[in-house]
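Q: Predict the assembly, please.
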Amino acid sequence: MNGKTRKLSLDRYIWLCTRGLPKNTRLDTAAELRVHVLERIRMLEGQGFPRAEAEHVAVSEMGLPEGTNRAFLGHFFTYKLGWMVLGLGVLGAGIWWSKDNLFAKTAGVQSVPLSSKELSAVLSNPDLREMKDFNAFRIVMPENAVGFEITLYHNKFGDFSGFLPAPYAGKNYPESNTTVPSNYRHEFTVIVGARANTPSCPYGLEVAPILLSEDSFNKGSEAYIPGKRCFMPSDGYHIGSTQFISYSSASLQSKLELNRSFLAWNASFGPKMDDCHAVGIKETPSCSLRSNILEESISKPNKHWDRNVYLSIRAVDEKHKTIIEQSHTSSKLGFEFDKTKGHYGAFVEREFTMSSKK
Amino acid sequence: MDKNLKQGTLELVLLSALERRPMYGLEILKAVEEGSSGLFKFKEGSLYPSLHKLVDAGCIESEWQPSSVGGAPRKVYQITETGLSQLERKKLEWSDLRSGLDALLGLKERTL
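A: Predicted assembly structure:
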């Protein structure tokens, strides 16, 4: 006997030796082992061993049951070690698979703090330096989204909307030939900057949405600037989109010195109709001209004042159908009457309230 | 004797023991131990998996038989034609191996 022997009853030894075998083989093998050990016990008893000691010695001389069981099975998967290895293997494979296939980030839009890196990226652009108040939104694209649309609107009229396709959703990243895992969701940060009463937008509120994108498949921080939008209070009039200061993709690329091709922002423009007065807005060439309209309108009875600027972010599918939409209402970003000056002025506060629908 | 070397020759040893006559497990152990002057002494439990492999290979066959001395029946193993052919082939292999090793180790000259 060696140090590895342990106290095992005959029944326990036979069970350990034969477990995992097909039933007929198990019974046949168990009977054979039992006959062997019983004969050895009888021999030992004949030599004067008490029954208990004889059984212990006879079983010990059989050797370790795990090794015998492994030899009977003819493979590695004995209960103790083999199944443990198999289980660990399956678990490891499952973890490896789930890494790329499960636990995708939940699609949606979240209001997030603006990081210093993002802030410096925004402020490095000369066109945005004058903007003061920024709100950041983190967008996680839904799985089947091909892009998302940002709309800035004034009193629920879509004065500005831009569509940006999700560049790598469900596809291989074109520049690195990297296969995008199925649980990958493209993420963007949209930052909305605003400032009241700027020289280019007197009496108004200038708002600029800025897009930053940085994740594992889209390295680096890039700013896509669809332009600034001047919102102004009016009496029944909603300011048309011609004030929107847009950049062509080429000029923007040049401005930001982007080496990579980037996705042009497709803004849609058009005069809007006013529900209250059903008056079509004529195209106006500049913000200052509209401020004249504003001055004129101030003297008129106030029938309808725009007080809020809305930001809506929609993820859309291939048919441009909305998958998920989140609206952010700037209840503290708008206009109020300045009694001392006798006219309406814009004001900006940082907080947006959020609502969402799917 | 080295465990691996013993394991490698176990099939030859068992077939050789059963060549003489049909035997049951404990008998085989005793025959091998006595026939090898105590050189082949292994854990009794390891005998049966080896015997089962030889049965699966068709080299031996087994049958439950009543004990000649009374008591429980015993499973008796008997070599088959396939087993005999296998044994002859293994004997030749062993002979060749031994000759080669003896020559390599310089044992042949010493024994001459």
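Chain B is about 60% helix and 10% strand. The interface with chain A takes residues 24-26, 43-46, 48-50, 52-53, 71-75 of chain B (CB under 8 Å).
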